[in-house]
Amino acid sequence: MICQSCGKHQATTHVKTVINGTVTERNLCAECAQKEGIGTWNPFQGFSGFENPFFSLSNLFGSFLGSSLPETVTRCPVCGSSFHDISESGKVGCSECYDVFYEQLLPSIQRLHGSPSHTGKNPTSQAMQVMPNAELTISEQKGPSQEEQQIAQYEKEMQQAIAKQDFEQAAVLRDRIRELKQKGEK
Amino acid sequence: MIHTNRKWYEKHGPQGDVVISTRIRLARNLPKIPFPERMSQKQREQVEAAVHKAVEHGSAAIAQSLRYVNMQDVSRIEAISMVERHLASPDFISQTSGRALLLAADESISVMVNEEDHVRMQIMMEGMNLEKAYQIASVLDDSLNSSLHFAFHKDLGYLTQCPTNLGTGMRASLMLHLPALQESGIMNRIAGNLSKLGLALRGTYGEGTHSVGALYQLSNQVSLGLSETEAIANLSTIVMQLMDQERKARQQMVREVDKQDQIFRSAAILKSARVLSTDEMMKLLSHVRVGIACGLLSEIPYDTVNALMIRTQPATMSLAYGHEDAIPVQERDTLRAKIVAKALA
Ligand SMILES: [Zn+2]
Ligand SMILES: [Zn+2]
Q1: Measured between CA atoms, how close is B283 to chain A, in angstroms?
Q2: Could you read off the pLDDT of B18-38 as tens digits, one per residue?
Q3: Residue B167: its chain A contacts at CB < 8 A?
Q4: Which CATH number belongs to the domain containing residue B22 in this structure?
Q5: 8-state DSSP, B73
């Protein structure tokens, strides 16, 4: 399929926009999609002619594909995706995939963001952000630690879940508590 | 928000001569469930129900105040209007099954369920309001997280379907009016420089870096390795410089009598035209905005201009006038002219 904007390149992105009250669907090449700022990026495949190509599939996997392919393909236990599925679509299958394919995903993530490590908001423990080193944790620790507070909170929520017969939620909370306690023991 | 039932887009805010609106979007997902691209119908419904429940039982008052809309109960024209009002994406409305939208009364908060990610929270505010919009987003995030426990990885941050959103999952954008910079023909160069700083500048309406009505969207591209506060600070610093350049260029521009003529003529056409297309209106409103900013048309409030840009969009206008289908183009342009003339009278 040829790009509906430039009429030259192969169309790779399907783009939906609302123009004058109707949803318009067009097939665009990567370059034109990028120009219009409405393309869905496939960070695993990179753009031709784009200033900062994220990642070239052929470069990275050329040697891999050239050599013998492993017999068994690793699949994510939650969503069933293989790494091939992910790199083809540019979409990761589920949150678990990031653990299963961590090493393979990392290069393109670094290419995209320049950094592999998150420094922003952390939903599980605010303490990690505030405390720069372990010494500080010990010297400043007075009342219950952030983790102990979190465990207490989860225990409360678990009791409520059980009271409401929401056992699924209770099980999730139980696992979280276990995880936190294990972390504390290390 | 409490004193008025006006929508966010019917107001103007800080730096309103250049910054029309602020948008903060947070992408979040539930653990152990495939991302939307690979979800089963049953899983879609499961996520929808979980988010619905999380909102109803949310600890924050803002979460509880949201109205739940099942996208399958929404008419086609209402859905398109949601896109025009920046509440939903074109992609979101193209498939309605297993999708829901949560909406605040003034439309400043919306949550798309099962779009590209399981949960996409969005805060829209008038003018330049990055910090405040982020605060609201974060409170809503905490409230939903307490029951949904969003997928998070210690190094990769919030996990998202597309790795471009990893880390904070935050995209902060500002809608800017940059007519003087556009006229000086340096938008491509500016966009190029900004992309090196991890920011994207795009035309809002129209193609590429030329934009009808000189409206541009500036947003952060990097979300991993930069905290929310850092990303917002970066964006603010850059936008301050852009604003400065734009204002200087405007001062220069309006000294020319031709430009003054164009501004007053635009106001006159808007007040008296009988037929107005969206494109023509956007162009004329752009000139009028410059006129207001430079004190030539101080009797016209920014609020009116901002509201017209949304209220006269085809689907939104048809809906407001009780039509179940889009009004035919000819009729629409006539109605638009009437609405604009009345608003500016
Ligand atoms: Zn093209
Ligand atoms: Zn997976």
Answers
A1: 15
A2: 999 999 999 999 999 999 999
A3: 113, 118-120
A4: 3.30.590.10
A5: G
